[in-house]
Amino acid sequence: MTAAQLAQQLEVSVRTVYRDVEALHAAGVPLYGDAGHAGGYQLLAGHRSWLTGLFTGEAEALFLAGVPGAAAELGLGAHFADAQLKLRAALPAPLRDHVDRLRARFHIDAPGWYAEDADAPFLPAVAEAVRAGRVLAVRYRRWKEPTDVDRRLAPYGLVLKAGRWYLVAGPGPRTYRVDQILELDVTDEEFEIPDDFSLTAYWTDHQTSFRARLHGGDALVRLSPDGAKRLTGESARALAATGVPEPDGWIRATLPIESVAHAHDTFLALGADAEVLEPAELRDRITATITALAARYVRARASTPPQRRP
């Protein structure tokens, strides 16, 4: 079959056929093409794919990889449940029993403990536009002025990160929080995703640049053993890389900070288990806050009449 015939039968573009053929080649599928008017693509005679049997590890991975909550948010909850039932019914009885026991022992809850549920009423419509390749007309709320803006977006894909949905869309592409979409209209305009675009690669680069923007400087600090245990993420990794034990049991380390204002709140949260040595601006700001707090509590204690014992 020619690329044009395949495109018509599969209801995709010819460019998509060329891209999929290259992917099949890379996967080792013996698909051959002949040029010319009488040419086209054909599969090597006798080739069979090993897609009808699942090993134990493969079946475990498929059932544990499913996130019912995410499927429901995308409007696919019923389809997800049906697919799991069909997959389970296709497994041999011993493997089916094994998978049932496994599912009873593992539960996936992706969002963090302190993450609030983000209300994203337009998520199913956005997901449908991603699947159909339709341009979106949205009113979007961003953090800077003017806060509410109108945009026409080509939705390339959706990413679920820590319980929050993000839309990656052209032009750009750029990243948008789905829960910040105020109004949405799915247009009849179609678009083509660039051939060189990869959602996974884009998101990896986006996270790398995001972390780089968060690292606005460094702070030299001393931490008690309890304070060191309370560090997480980049701070914990920096502590492991730069920490030097001192004779009193505390640890001196250089930690990344986003800004003086953000670091002020972060280190104050550690209380007496942290001492900032540098930069001077951060140390002075924390000193001023502690001095003001101490004065406030002293005044409050002085103005409170002593309680009489019965």
What secondary-structure arrangement, pairings included, does this model have?
Elements: H1 3-10, H2 14-26, E1 31-34, E2 40-43, H3 56-65, H4 68-73, H5 77-90, H6 93-105, H7 123-132, E3 134-141, E4 148-161, E5 164-170, E6 174-177, E7 181-190, H8 199-214, E8 217-223, H9 225-229, H10 233-242, E9 244-245, E10 251-257, H11 260-268, E11 274-278, H12 280-303
Helix pairs in contact: 1-2, 3-6, 11-12
SS-based class? alpha+beta
Task: Give the helix tally.
Answer: 12
Largest β sheet strand count, sense and barrel closure: 5 strands, antiparallel
The end-to-end distance, rounded to whole angstroms, is 98 Å
% residues in beta strands: 15-25%
Side by side, the strands of the main sheet go 6-5-4-3-7
Uncertain regions spanning at least 5 consecutive residues: none
Q: What is the β-strand count? A: 11
Order of helices and strands: HHEEHHHHHEEEEEHEHHEEHEH
Mean pLDDT: 85
- The shape is elongated
Give the helix proportion (percent range).
40-55%
Task: Please state the CA-atom Rg, rounded to the nearest Å.
Answer: 28 Å
